[in-house]
Amino acid sequence: MRLIESTYISLDGMVTGDAFWGAQQGFQGDAHNQHAAALLETADALLLGRQTYDVFATSWPERSGELADLINPLPKYVASRTLTEATWNTEVLQGDGVEAVAELKKSREGTLLKYGTGSFSRALVEAGLLDELRLWVHPFVAGSGESLLAGISPTQLALAAVTEVGNGVVVLTYAPKH
């Protein structure tokens, strides 16, 4: 399987924080949603960390519309050391999440799309498991929060594409530099 990480980020590199989630919502529009839908259409399954799963599993099943119609039926995997059962068409990856994802990549075909932020994303980058990193750069400064890639070992990526999705948002697509 190919693994694509798709993450919203502010100009100052934040992916969470008090100002982050409210601010980024103001930049979404038709082109943004079309790009998100096109990415979802390429996915054969979703990969989520525990915190992202908790948020998504309580909100997406109740939504309707194009994005919900694409995301809800997809098979999902959640990496968690504590979760034993899941809903929303989800399989729990027990044990070490990085090892479980490495095994998924070897044993299955297609594209695995990962949403979310945090330590699991950083661990996947460090392990060299990402085939693409898509950063949805939003034109605002969050001022505080968590940086997506802070604290990882130096890693070089090659710019593969730049896509404007409206309202000043660009999606920067990176691939591992070989």
Automatic annotation (TrEMBL):
GO terms for biological process: riboflavin biosynthetic process. InterPro entries: DHFR-like_dom_sf, RibDG_C, Riboflavin_Biosynth_HTPR. Pfam families: RibD_C (PF01872). One of its GO terms (molecular function) is 5-amino-6-(5-phosphoribosylamino)uracil reductase activity. It comes from the Bacteria. Residues 6-171 form the Bacterial bifunctional deaminase-reductase C-terminal domain. This is Bacterial bifunctional deaminase-reductase C-terminal domain-containing protein.
